[in-house]
Amino acid sequence: MVNQKYKNMLGAKNIIRVLSEYATERGAEIGYENVFDYSLGNPSVPCAKEYTDAVIKMYEKEDPLTLHGYSPSLGNTKVREQVAEYLRNRFGIPYETKHIFMTSGAAGAIAHALRIVTEPGDEVLTFAPFFPEYTPYVNDTGAHLTVVEADKEGFQINMDAFEKAMNENVQAVLINSPNNPSGIVYSEDTLKKLSDILREKEKEYGHEIFLISDEPYREIVFDGKEAPYPSKYYDNSISCYSYSKSLSLPGERIGYVAVNPKAVDSDVLAIMCGQVSRGIGHNCPASTSQLGIAATLGKTSDLSVYETNMNLLYDVLTELGFEVVRPGGTFYIFPKCLEEDATTFCKKAMKYDLILVPSDNFGVNGYFRMAYCIDTEKVERSIPVIRKFVKEEYGR
């Protein structure tokens, strides 16, 4: 019998993908250069040259059987050792090889992290606005995702709503900073308050509550700052990382789980990920990808274009009267719509070939997301179109 659950999901596509597909179709009609597609968060800068050079060198000089053979179930041991050393030196946390598990990007990391600290029937909390794919990520484990109401003032964490949502069934809290869709970076004060509440609730409930931190945008931070590292503030934490954004390698599907060495059962949690893989069909990312990132640890693509694009959009949106919290990182901006219904607002924008994503699926009503990972030249050309849209539809 066909699985009805997944068949039903065919009728509930991710709105981001739907809009991206529309933009592609519209581009075939009028030229994609004339469609101002702010839908999909696909990195728009070339991958780091160091990565390309490292991979070319491997293909030229490495033994093919060694290069293309199966890696161990936890990932290439040498690569895990190098990732642990890099994190140890950068963040001052004593990671060892045993704390690292190589994954197919951050999505693969989250899939494993959730399964090693929850069981079916457990509850996982996350904070609006949130990446909508968290819903299937969590619910398909048998656990249940609960979304905590947003702090609309600054899109940090609504601590009052968080404390009200906490209960004995919560086994994990899933955070994303720098954040998709808001672009906000959680402050050190936010992370300290979050950690204090979690420690208090662990004592009250008599069991661990794990903090799972989704960090694919860790390196895309503006104004010369760095994003605070959540694992520095809370022991029972798991960092989920991807090189998709920092090295512009989304198609290579490479990332890792890093278990805080101070976490309960830290010696075995990453190793348990290998057993999770047996049930979900994940058996290590490609060997070449693992070796390539190991050769370029600490390197990034030229990410400066994202800050340039953000400033251009932030300036015009605020000038036109939009309420918008200035992003601290990522390549997303999350303004409030000029009317209550986000879907209606975004449909009106489509008449001007502006492709914007309504906020409903992100757990907040009345906002829209713009993914500005496009050429700066196209951002600049979109500004007169944004002005025209706002003037003709809203008289501003």
Which spans have pLDDT < 50 for at least 5 consecutive residues?
Answer: none
Mean pLDDT: 96
End-to-end separation: 56 Å
What is the CATH homology-level superfamily of the largest domain?
Type I PLP-dependent aspartate aminotransferase-like (Major domain)
Assign the CATH topology of the largest domain: Aspartate Aminotransferase, domain 2
Helix proportion range: 40-55%
CATH architecture verdict of the largest domain: 3-Layer(aba) Sandwich
Structural features:
alpha/beta; seven-stranded mixed β-sheet; Aspartate Aminotransferase, domain 2; Aspartate Aminotransferase, domain 1; 2 domains; 14 helices; 42% helix
What report would you give on this structure?
With 396 residues, this protein is an alpha/beta fold. The chain has two domains: 4-47 and 302-394, Aspartate Aminotransferase, domain 1 (Alpha-Beta Complex); 49-294, Aspartate Aminotransferase, domain 2. 42% of the residues lie in helices and 12% in strands. The chain is built from 14 helices and twelve strands. A seven-stranded mixed beta sheet has the order 2-8-7-6-5-3-4, with helices on both faces. Helix 7 (134-139) links the parallel strand 3 and strand 4. Helix 3 (49-61) crosses helix 11, helix 6 packs across helix 10 (266-280) and helix 12 (304-319) runs parallel beside helix 14 (376-394). It is globular. It starts with a helix and ends with a helix. The relative contact order is 0.16. The mean pLDDT is 96.
